[in-house]
Amino acid sequence: MHNHQLFDHPLFEERPINEVIEPFGFEVNIHAIEAPIDPAVDDDDVVDAFANDPQAYIASLEFPHPAGFTEVYRDENEDGDIISVAVRAKTVFAQLLLCADATFAGPSSPYSGSYIDVYRERMRQLSTEGFSRERDDQYVHGELSYAAASYAYQSSGIVDGTNKCPAIWPWPAKWWKPSPDHPRRNLVKAGALILAEIERLDRAAERQGGEG
Predict the structure, then answer these.
(1) Most CB within 10 Å of its CB: which of 72, 110, 165, 205?
(2) Angle at the Cα of 166 (from 134 to 151), degrees rounded to 5?
(3) Hey, is 34 helix, strand or coil?
(4) 99 secondary structure, DSSP code
(5) Residue that terminates a domain, selected from 66, 89, 112
(6) Which of 54, 152, 133, 43 is CA-nearest to residue 91?
């Protein structure tokens, strides 16, 4: 069993798992069982199997997670219990976050490659471009959609090649950063901005108690 790289974050050492994961847009299902270490209540063969190779024993267990959930973590916790964590993505961002770990977005997955690139661009925007979800929530006049459309248009091949920002670009020209001669890169930027707008709409709908 490969644990999702998300669980490498030290925040999981400080807070309950569901409190960390749910804000990212996941529904979380957790199962915990006691490790078989007591011969008085556990089968001797099971106790021996766990003692001889704990990881192999843990990997052999089956946990009854609901259909549609993906197991992202199983291990022995600090209390000596064996836990299994499974998630179901409720938002596009959560699905991309899940597939950011290559193990959960392998060659057979429909969420590999291009999806991961869009996710990474979204993370880059949040970490290096000065964007934040709080700031995105202020763009209530279609700015994120217009910005996405601008990059998508740039990739179309019908622009004049000057890299001049389109008339619908919603922000100062210094923020217009197309990638010359790289239409795929511009589409990735467009996809990340579309994702930002979808997230904004989802947050707004959640605050209003409805759906966008």
Answers:
(1) 72
(2) 60
(3) strand
(4) H
(5) 89
(6) 133
Calpha distance 19→126 (Å, rounded): 21
Residue that finishes a domain, picked among 52, 68, 89: 89
Do residues 98 and 87 make contact, with C-beta atoms less than 8 angstroms apart? Answer: yes
DSSP, collapsed to helix, strand or coil, labels residue 179 as: coil
> Tens of pLDDT along 43-87?
888 888 888 988 898 989 999 999 889 899 999 888 888 999 999
Shared domain for 99 and 197, answered yes or no, is yes
Residue 6 burial (CB < 10 Å; 0-12/13-18/19+)? buried
Domains in the chain: how many in total? 2
For residues 138 and 194, membership in a common domain is answered with yes
Same domain, 73 and 105: no
Residues 141, 147, 151: CA angle, nearest 5 degrees: 160
pTM for the model stands at 0.53
| Residue 116: Cβ within 10 Å count | 17
Q: Same domain for 98 and 203?
A: yes
Given phi > 0 = left and psi -120 to 50 = alpha, else beta, which region is 113? left
Same domain? 159 vs 183: yes
How many beta carbons lie within 10 A of that of residue 168, not counting itself? Answer: 13
